[in-house]
Amino acid sequence: MIDLHSHVLPGVDDGPRTLDESLAILRAAAEDGITRIAATPHVRDDHPTSPETMERGVDELNRAARDAGIPIDVLPGGELDIEYAARLDDATLARFGLGGNATVLLLECPYSGWPLDLRDVVFRLAARGFSVVLAHPERNPDVQADPELLRPLVDAGVLVQLTAASIEGRAGSSARRTSRVLLDGGLAQLIAGDAHAPQVRAVGLASAAAGLGDAALARWLTEDVPAAVVAGSPLPARPKQGKRRFFGLLHP
After folding, report:
1. Burial status of residue 206 (CB atoms within 10 A of its CB: 0-12, 13-18, 19 or more)
2. What are the structural domain ranges in the chain?
3. Are 228 and 57 in contact (CB under 8 A)?
4. Cβ proximity of 78 and 130 under 8 Å
5. Topology of the domain comprising 2-233
6. Rounded CA gap, 36 and 99, in Å?
7. How many Cβ atoms from other residues are within 10 Å of residue 105's Cβ?
8. Neighbour-count burial of 138, counting CB atoms closer than 10 A to its CB (0-12 exposed, 13-18 middle, 19+ buried)
9. What are the phi and psi torsion angles at 59 (to 5°)?
10. How far is residue 184's CA from residue 162's CA, in Å, rounded to a whole number?
11. Residue (of 160, 222, 237) closest to 29 by Cα position
């Protein structure tokens, strides 16, 4: 599996403070079946991570993982605040490209309030040559009240990334229910861990994927789509949805 959202770099944002803590996250991720993980530190006013800091952290963490015998590759990236990203020039944005793809940006969906200009932001970024992955919108109360808010964005090419904790219910019943609605409505294309500490990964992508009750869909969300994002390849077709057990319930 490929995890395109993590806060694994030590001492950079609200993730691990030490290299040992970072390596503990990587060990847990590798044990969960993850072979590649994107380091996506916050890039916003309270954590104004520079591309130099991110790139240096990725290089150092990859070396440390190899030395520790952890079979996982750490990829570059960043989780960019929507307004903060708009202030960055093209060259800087490209260095934060998700998984090393300089044309794809991971934008942080706010946990409260819905940015009314988000579609305009997406179009402006597209005009500059960037496409968008939107992180954890299922945790936003406005999306929980009206998941169709995401339909125009998805129709415009935005990829929606759900958090494993939301799918499993660890982020609350509303996020869990909204994740189900988004998946059933074809409004989500990725699952990611968003790990900040090793214990957050005690239940990771593997159990979230298994909980979908649809092996083909799980593979698409955790392997096929993220691999296409990293490679800059066309998105593979979504598997046809049959009857499946989702969160313990039977869905058509």
Report:
1. middle
2. 2-233
3. no
4. no
5. TIM Barrel (3.20.20)
6. 9
7. 26
8. buried
9. -60, -45
10. 13
11. 222
Closest residue by Cα to residue 106 from 127, 128, 136, 129? 136
The amino acid that residue 109 corresponds to is C
Are the C-beta atoms of residues 79 and 113 closer than 8 Å to each other?
no
Give the Å distances, CA to CA, from 182 to 44, 179, 211.
27, 5, 15
Q: Which helix (H) or strand (E) holds 123?
A: helix 118-127
168: which 2 tokens?
């499993």
Short-list 152, 1, 5, CA closest to 76: 5
Quick one: DSSP state of residue 238?
Answer: P
pTM here is 0.94
Residue-wise pLDDT tens for the chain (252 aa)?
999 999 999 999 999 999 999 999 999 999 999 999 999 999 999 999 999 999 999 999 999 999 999 999 999 999 999 999 999 999 999 999 999 999 999 999 999 899 888 999 999 999 999 999 999 999 999 999 999 999 999 999 999 999 999 999 989 999 999 999 999 999 999 999 999 987 654 447 999 999 999 999 999 999 999 999 999 999 999 998 755 445 444 343
Say what angle helices 19-31 and 51-67 make with each other, to 10 degrees.
70
